[in-house]
Automatic annotation (TrEMBL):
Keywords: Cell membrane, Cell projection, Coiled coil, Cytoplasm, DNA-binding, Membrane, Nucleus, Phosphoprotein. It is found in: Cell membrane; Cell projection, Lamellipodium; Cytoplasm; Nucleus. Residues 311-333, 545-588 are annotated as: Disordered. It comes from Megalops atlanticus (Tarpon). This is Switch-associated protein 70. The keyword DNA-binding applies. Phosphatidylinositol 3,4,5-trisphosphate-dependent guanine nucleotide exchange factor (GEF) which, independently of RAS, transduces signals from tyrosine kinase receptors to RAC. It also mediates signaling of membrane ruffling. Regulates the actin cytoskeleton as an effector or adapter protein in response to agonist stimulated phosphatidylinositol (3,4)-bisphosphate production and cell protrusion.
Length: 588
C-alpha cells in the first residue's frame, strides 16, 4: 500500500465524519478547516485562496467527496513528502471522526487503544470505499493480538463468530472492529492492561514498523563502558533509548544492504555478544540470554536481506500476498460461476433440442397414424365396391338364367349354361386379377408403412443414444465405485479364508503336539516298565534268563555246540558270583 493510499484512508474517515446528514457532501468552511489541518500536520504550505479558486463556480451549497478529490490531489497529496509524523496525522483524522462514531459504552479499552485499532484497521482494510475489513484480515489481526497477549488461539471460537458474521455480512467497519476488540469478545480471561499491551505491540509492528524491541547492553564508542538501552528494530534502522517510554533517544544504527551482523565470543565479563557492522562504525551489543541473542541476530539479518533486495517489511509483504491470494480466489470463483452458467446454458439448449426432437417424433408418429387410417379407409372402400360388383353380377346372371329358361330348350339351356360358366370363369379370372392388383397395392402401402416405422425407430434410437450417453457418464462413476467395493470385498474374503486356514493349521498343529506328548508319555511309561522288569529278572537270573539279542562278541563253543553265553558274559557272571561270595563271607 503506497503513501497516497494510506493517507486517503484516514482522510476519508475525516471527510465522512464532517458529513453530518450523510448526504455525501461537506460545507466549504469545514473543508477549509480540514485542508488547513492536513497541510499543517503534513508540513505543506497552505494556500487558503486555492480552495476558493477551485470551487468558485460552486459558491452555493456543500461540496461532495468527488468534488473535493481533485483539489486534495493537486494542492495537498501531490506536494506531500515523507517528512512528517504519520501518528500525528492519524490522530488529527481520528479526532475528527471518533467524536461522531466512537461509542465508548461497555468498552474495556482506552481512547488511545481505540485509536491504535483504528490505525490497524486502515492498514488491513480493502482499497475500496466505503472502507471495510474482510474476515481473513480480521483473523490475522486477532491471531497477532492473541499472540501478543500470550494467549492461545481458539480456532473453533473464531469459526463460530465467522458463521455469525457471514449470516449478516462478511466484513466489518472500523467502529465495529473497535467494538469487537473493546468488548473483550476474544480476550476473555485477560485484564485490561494485558489487552492494552497486546494492542500496543501489534500497533508498533504493523503501523510503526517495529519488528523487535527490548532491553540490551551496548558498548560505548568513547568510554568503552556498557550501558543498558531500550532497542527498537525497524526495517532500515535500530534506535536505542534510555528507557522503554521512548522519551530520550540516544542514537540510531542505520542499516543498509552492506551491513552485517555477527556473533561474538564472551569477553570482558559479558555474555551473549554480537556485533552490527556498518560502513562507518560497528556496534557491540550484549543480549540477556542466548535465545534473545539469536532472535535479534535473525531479525537484524532479515532486515539487511530485505534492504539488499529492496523489499518492504514482512507484514507489508504478507498483507500484499494475502490480498493477491484473495483476488486470485475471487477470480477463480468468478471463472467457476461463469463456467457453471455456460454449462447451464448448454444444458438448457440441449433440453430444448431434445424437446424439439421429441415433438418431431410425435408429429412423425401422428403422420404415420393418419397414413395408416387413410390406408384402412381406402381398403374398406375397395372391399365395399368389390362386394357391390359381385352382387350386381349375381343379379345379372339370375336375369340371364331366367331369360334362357324361358326362351331356350333344354339343349339350348345346357349350351347357354356352358357359355355362362365360361363367362363366369373369365370374370372370376378378372376378379382374381383385381384381387392380385389390390394385394400388390396393399404390399406397397405396407412397405411404405414399414419405411415410416424404420425412420421412426431410427429417430427413436438416436434419442435413446443421447439418453444412454447421459446415463453412461452417470453409471461409469457408479461402476468404478462398485468395482472398488467388489475388490475390497474380495480382499476381505481372501483375508478371512486365509485366517480360517491359519486357525485350522494351528488346531492341527496343537492336536499333533498333543498326540506327540501322549506318545512320549506312553514311551516313557513303557521304558520305565521295561527297566523295572529287567531289574527283577536280574535278581532271579539263576532261574530265568531273559532272552535278549546276542552280543556281537565271539561266541563260546562247547562240546554240545554253541553256548548260551559269550566269554564276556561268562566273565561278568563269574565276577558277580565272586562279589556275592565275598560279601556273604564278610557278613558271617
Amino acid at each position: 500500500m503506497g503513501l497516497r493510499d494510506e493517507l486517503l484512508k484516514a482522510i476519508w474517515h475525516a471527510f465522512t465524519a464532517l458529513d453530518v446528514d450523510k448526504s455525501g457532501k461537506v460545507s466549504k468552511s469545514q473543508l477549509k478547516v480540514l485542508s488547513h489541518n492536513l497541510c499543517t500536520v503534513m508540513k505543506i504550505p497552505h494556500d487558503p485562496v486555492a480552495l476558493e479558486e477551485h470551487f468558485k463556480d460552486d459558491d452555493e451549497g456543500p461540496v461532495s467527496n468527488h468534488g473535493y478529490m481533485p483539489y486534495l490531489n493537486t494542492f495537498i497529496l501531490d506536494k506531500v513528502q515523507d517528512n512528517f509524523d504519520r501518528v500525528d496525522f492519524n490522530k488529527m483524522c481520528w479526532t475528527l471522526c471518533a467524536r461522531k462514531n466512537l461509542n465508548r459504552n461497555h468498552l474495556l479499552i482506552t481512547d488511545d487503544d481505540a485509536f491504535k485499532i483504528w490505525c490497524i484497521f486502515n492498514f488491513l482494510s480493502e482499497d475500496k470505499y466505503p472502507l471495510v475489513i474482510v474476515t481473513e484480515e480480521i483473523e490475522y489481526f486477532l491471531r497477532k493480538l492473541t499472540e501478543a497477549m500470550g494467549g492461545s488461539w481458539v480456532e473453533e471460537k473464531f469459526e463460530d463468530y465467522k458463521l455469525q458474521l457471514n449470516s449478516s455480512q462478511q466484513c466489518l467497519s472500523a467502529w465495529e472492529l473497535i467494538e469487537l476488540i473493546g468488548t473483550g469478545h476474544f480476550s476473555k480471561g485477560m485484564d485490561r492492561q494485558t489487552l492494552s499491551m497486546g494492542i500496543s505491540e501489534v500497533f508498533q509492528e504493523l503501523i510503526l514498523d517495529v519488528l523487535k524491541q527490548g532491553y540490551m547492553m551496548k558498548k560505548g564508542h568513547k568510554r568503552k563502558n556498557w550501558t543498558e538501552r531500550w532497542f527498537l528494530l525497524r526495517p532500515n534502522a535500530i534506535s536505542y533509548y534510555v528507557s522503554e517510554d521512548l522519551t530520550e533517544k540516544k542514537g540510531d544504527i542505520m542499516l543498509d544492504g552492506n551491513c552485517c551482523v555477527e556473533s561474538l565470543p564472551d569477553k570482558e565479563g559479558k555474555k551473549c555478544l554480537f556485533i552490527v557492522k556498518c560502513a562507518d562504525k560497528s556496534f557491540e551489543i550484549s543480549a540477556s540470554d542466548k535465545k534473545k541473542k539469536q532472535e535479534w541476530i535473525q531479525a537484524i539479518q532479515t532486515c539487511i536481506n530485505l534492504l539488499k533486495r529492496d523489499l518492504p517489511a514482512p507484514h507489508h509483504e504478507s498483507r500484499q500476498k494475502r490480498k493477491e491470494l484473495r483476488q486470485k480466489l475471487q477470480a477463480e470463483q468468478e471463472q467457476l460461476e461463469q463456467r457453471m452458467k455456460e454449462l447451464q446454458t448448454a444444458n438448457e439448449n440441449k433440453q430444448r433440442e431434445l424437446e424439439a426432437m421429441r415433438k418431431k417424433l410425435e408429429e412423425a408418429a401422428a403422420n404415420a397414424a393418419e397414413e395408416e387410417r387413410r390406408r384402412l379407409q381406402t381398403q374398406s372402400e375397395l372391399q365395399d365396391r368389390y362386394r357391390m360388383d359381385l352382387e350386381r353380377e349375381k343379379m345379372v346372371r339370375q336375369q340371364m338364367e331366367e331369360q334362357v329358361a324361358q326362351k331356350s330348350s333344354e339343349l339350348e339351356q345346357y349350351l347357354q349354361r356352358v357359355r355362362e360358366l365360361e363367362d363366369m370363369y373369365h370374370r372370376l379370372e378378372e376378379a382374381l386379377e383385381d384381387e392380385r392388383q389390390a394385394r400388390q397395392d396393399e404390399e406397397a402401402v405396407r412397405k411404405l408403412q414399414a419405411r415410416l416405422l424404420e425412420e421412426e425407430a431410427a429417430k427413436r434410437a438416436e434419442l435413446e443414444q443421447l439418453h444412454l450417453q447421459q446415463q453412461k457418464a452417470i453409471s461409469q462413476t457408479e461402476a468404478e465405485k462398485q468395482e472398488l467395493e467388489n475388490e475390497r470385498l474380495a480382499k476381505e474374503t481372501a483375508l478371512q479364508a486365509a485366517m480360517s486356514q491359519l486357525e485350522q493349521l494351528e488346531c492341527e498343529r496343537q492336536g499333533a503336539l498333543e498326540q506327540y506328548e501322549e506318545v512320549m508319555k506312553k514311551l516313557e511309561h513303557a521304558t520305565n516298565k521295561t527297566r523295572s522288569w529287567k531289574d527283577k529278572v536280574a535278581h532271579h537270573e539263576g532261574l530265568i534268563r531273559l532272552i535278549q539279542p546276542g552280543s556281537k562278541g565271539p561266541q563260546r563253543i562247547t562240546n554240545w555246540g554253541p553256548a548260551a553265553f559269550t566269554d564276556t558274559e561268562l566273565d561278568r557272571r563269574e565276577q558277580d558270583w565272586q562279589e556275592k561270595k565275598s560279601r556273604s563271607a564278610q557278613a558271617q
